[in-house]
Every structure is written in structure tokens, then in C-alpha cells.
Design goal:
This protein is an alpha+beta fold. Helix content is about 50%, strand content about 20%. It starts with a helix and ends with a helix.
Length: about 210
């Protein structure tokens, strides 16, 4: 029994290492430099060195905080400004390469980096919410929700990683998120057309 547990542990660690090493490759870095310039290449190198390699043995909370902070430094721009359409789910590679995106793109990038770091994808949800600004304006918004337990009982059990607040806070301390419309995760459940398209783009490292 102990031997089997050791085998499972080794395979889990190896799997996490493989995911992290495959997310960013030298080939990708060269492609990013050719398409977007050397600063784009440097951003991908930074993900690989500062996040994936340095954080691989850190606690989940530390991973959440560091990844959230790093991704939130990317500039906000609407899909209309970047792609000329009202709604577009950019791959991590497009978002980091262009150094800009909207709330969905921040969410996607955080999700895939954290997944590569070994965070359980069942614990991460794309949360569609209603956001209320300081001026009182309400708008549709997306954040990444991390479930501290598999079956959260209160808002304290859900951590929010958003781009409107650079801190990772429990949902109970985010009064600006006035309503949760729904939470989804096509990676561990039914795959919508958007998820399938995103997944395909991630697999071929679409820049």
C-alpha cells in the first residue's frame, strides 16, 4: 500500500512538472519575439522563471497571490479595441503576447498558469458576476474563483482573483461583486463551444 502511494505521489509531481514545462517553450518564446517583439519574449520567459519554476514547491495561497499580481500588471483593453469584436476569449499566449486584454483574458491566463503549477482545476471556476464600481455603475464581469474546499458553504470559502482588485480576497470581502450569475469550468465538465475553441488554441499555443 505504501509503495502504491509513493508511485501515485511521484506520478503526480511528474505530471505537474510536465504541465509547467510544456506551458512555455523556447520555440514559443522565439515565435513571440518574431510576432510581438523582444518585450513579449521577456514576458513569457518571466512566466517560466518567476512563476512556474520558482513557485512550483510553494503553497497554493502563495501561488494564487503571485500569479494574480503578475497577470494583473497586463494592461486592460476591450475585445472591441483589440480584436474588433464584442466577445473573444484570447489564449494565454495572445493575451501575454499583446500585453492587453479584458477580464475574461485575465481569468483565462491565471487559470492556465495556476493549473500548470499543479492547482487542482476542479477548485478553479470562471465566475460570471455583476460588478459595481465606486461610482455605482453596474457591469458584467468575470473573475477566477478558487474554492478553498470542494463544497464551499460560505463566501469565506471562495477566494476571488480579479483584475479590478489586485488582492486575492474571500468573496465575503468583495462587496463590489454584488451578484454571481454562474460559475463554469469546461476543463473538468461539459465543454461549451468557447471552451473547445480556447482549448484548441491553447494546445497549438496560438499567439
Amino acid at each position: 500500500m505504501k509503495f502504491l502511494l509513493r508511485v501515485v505521489l511521484i506520478l503526480t509531481i511528474f505530471s505537474s512538472y510536465c504541465m509547467a514545462s510544456e506551458l512555455i517553450t523556447k520555440k514559443l518564446e522565439k515565435r513571440a519575439e518574431k510576432k510581438y517583439g523582444r518585450f513579449a519574449k521577456n514576458r513569457f520567459i518571466d512566466i517560466d522563471t518567476t512563476l512556474l519554476k520558482k513557485l512550483k514547491n510553494s503553497s497554493d495561497i502563495k501561488k494564487l497571490n503571485f500569479v494574480n499580481t503578475w497577470v494583473n500588471f497586463i494592461k486592460y483593453k476591450s475585445d472591441k479595441q483589440i480584436y474588433g469584436v464584442n466577445d473573444y476569449w484570447a489564449t494565454l499566449y495572445e493575451f501575454v503576447g499583446k500585453n492587453s486584454g479584458d477580464c475574461e483574458d485575465y481569468t483565462i491566463a491565471k487559470y492556465y498558469i495556476l493549473k500548470a503549477l499543479g492547482i487542482d482545476p476542479h477548485r478553479m471556476k470562471f465566475a460570471y458576476v455583476i460588478y459595481k464600481s465606486r461610482s455605482g455603475k453596474k457591469s458584467s464581469h468575470m473573475v477566477l474563483a478558487y474554492l478553498k474546499t470542494s463544497k464551499p458553504k460560505t463566501k469565506k470559502d471562495i477566494l476571488i482573483l480579479g483584475n479590478n482588485n489586485r488582492l486575492v480576497l474571500p468573496a465575503s470581502k468583495r462587496p463590489d461583486l454584488i451578484k454571481v450569475i454562474k460559475m463554469i469550468n469546461g476543463d473538468t465538465g461539459p465543454k461549451s463551444k468557447k471552451w473547445k475553441k480556447l482549448e484548441a488554441g491553447m494546445k497549438r499555443k496560438k499567439l
